[in-house]
Amino acid sequence: MPKVVxxxxxxxxxxxxxxxRKAGADVVILEKTDMLLGCGLVGGIIRNNGRFTAAEEAIAxxxxxLFQIADRTARHVNIEFPGHMHATLYDVARIEPEVxxxxxxxxxxxxxxxxxxxxxxNGSYISSVILADEKVIExxxxxxxxxxxxxxGNCKKYGNxxxxxxxxxxxxxxxxxxxxxxxxxxxxxxRSQDVYGAMSGSCxxxxxxxxxxxxxxxxxxxxxxxxxxxxxxxxxxxxxxxCQQYALDEYAENIILxxxxxxxxxxxxxxxxxxRKIPGFEKARFEDPYAGSKGNSIRYMSMAPRDNYMQVIGxxxxxxxGEKSGPFVGHTEAICTGILAGHNxxxxxxxxxxxxxxxELAIGDIIAYVNxxxxxxxxxxxxxxxxxSIYFERMKQLGLYSSNPDEIxxxxxxxxxxxxxxxxxxx
Amino acid sequence: xxxxxxxxxxxxxxxHLAEINSCLICSLLQGQETCDCKWHGLCIYxxxxxxxxxxxxxxxxxxxxxxEKSKLTEKLLxxxxxxxxxxxxxxxxQPGAFIFMRPAGTSRFFDMPLCVMDADENTGIxxxxxxxxxxxxxxxxxxxxxxxxxxPYFNGVFGLKxxxxxxxxxxLIVARGIGQASLxxxxxxxxxxxxxxxxxxxxxxxxxxxxxxxxxxxxxxxxILSFTQSLxxxxxxxxxxxxxxxxVFSAGPDKQHERLWExxxxxxxxxxxxxxxxxSMCCGEGVCGSCITKINGKxxxxxKMQMESQNVxxx
Lengths: 427, 315
Description:
A: 427 residues, alpha+beta, 5-stranded parallel sheet, B: 315 residues
């Protein structure tokens, strides 16, 4: 049985572990913190716009369980907010234990507080990963899903410093670029010619710190939109954020809150002094990042060149997914790239032909499209998500977008890919 | 391989190396564009910007009066000096602490590293044992009243974390010649943490054991190696005793480190090995380069780089 080592237990890593396990591998996840899901611990938005299509494709392809857990732990289903349709908001306080239990019951081993810091190579193969405590973890195939945000120095140099986000680098140590340790140079996203990275696009307020009226509306409707007084509007913040699908004027002029368990505020950060002058926010305080007054994490600092099978170019047995594999935004994008990487890791071990998802599917198209875009001059300035901005436009134009699960299922079936990720490949 | 800068996170960090893109740890402060450090609990880049891109406290030259100078043998000097800043004195009592010293009125060429044998926190008196051999030590020998010291520095021992974290364990210490001078702060630290210690003293070419008297006042098991005894037989005896040896510390010349490591390997010892740092140093600040050694293909400035002994021995 192949041993697949997944480095990073965020959504992408969970997706990769799930698919590798289904394909018949012995799987271990190395996670530097004390919980799975990474930034997904403070996320919550799925199924908005084209993400609905992607989630249904993943389900039809046979590896949709993580979406089903998110559906099951939803606080709000089928809601709308500016620019976004049929979103589901999962409960950030409930989802992690559910995912953990599910993966463990599948027989996946999860090692917490196990930070990969180096590797041992054998030619162009990785033979093992070395943890911060110098333990050696051997494997046949490796999948890097360490993300692209932080560490602290990057957040300081390209942002406003460590804002104490959910990644908790000072406590658990920073992520290390494994592909770089294997001799593959990282690609770095840009905001302008010499400014790297992009800032995470949302911060979260403690719901109990908001007025009763706001709280009630969040509980009942999932969304609250509050006009920001003119003197506190900072349109410039839109350009620095990761989530171009939320870089609309409405997001600069209004406070848009989503109920994910926290009150998710769709802007990278918000000075406390200004926030508390807005009616209903007089007692507001941040839940993530803890220093949400001053900044947020910086991302896209460490992306690996890869092919459309999700294999890192230049290393024979290293795959990648999530933000590590390109300027993707979102959990859906992480999970979808993760499951392909996980599945192909087993094919790689077996020496069978790797699977490339066809461009008739949104997942297949985004994986290939991002690769094409990264080869262009402007590619490193762009971000890609099923949920909006350039890629959702493309989905609509090419007819890749659908909000009809039966139609999507039929399409996957007609491509001969129904349940493809459910096939155990090993004997 | 695990390593870190002994000064990182201390009041002496960030240092002048950060200012000139030569930080030993931080990739951003080495002029690279992204983070890739051997994380040791804090972000030096963050600290550097936080204090306004400035260097933190620098160790200053201070004048100290000689209060006692005695000749134990023709080649061995015992020197006691009075340090003015008494509040800092507990830092000189740290395991692995050392200073640079030169006679007052001489140039910095005469700076030499000296480990602190004893630091009296009440009186502010530091004690050193000096093996008189070359120009620097001869100059100290000829000095009557004042010396210039700069310190404290902390990287006098490789494997320091074991000394600081060991509680209620069995230690075997082999100390030879002038290498014994580094023992006392370490032994006091280990005794405070209820460790059980056996010390084998080897006078070496020095002919005497400078710390013997100090050790007799503590509760360590003391053994003096005579000319007829072999190190191998003695170590073997201790390794095969019913209680386990948890840590071995070698204080002495590199030859002893290598020999002891060989013996330990021969008898299947697989626990941590701690040893004194004997690399040449002129500044202690990662600048002069006299301590540079290639380890795992990487140039390491060993006056500041703290790591496990076997990495140094293998390097």
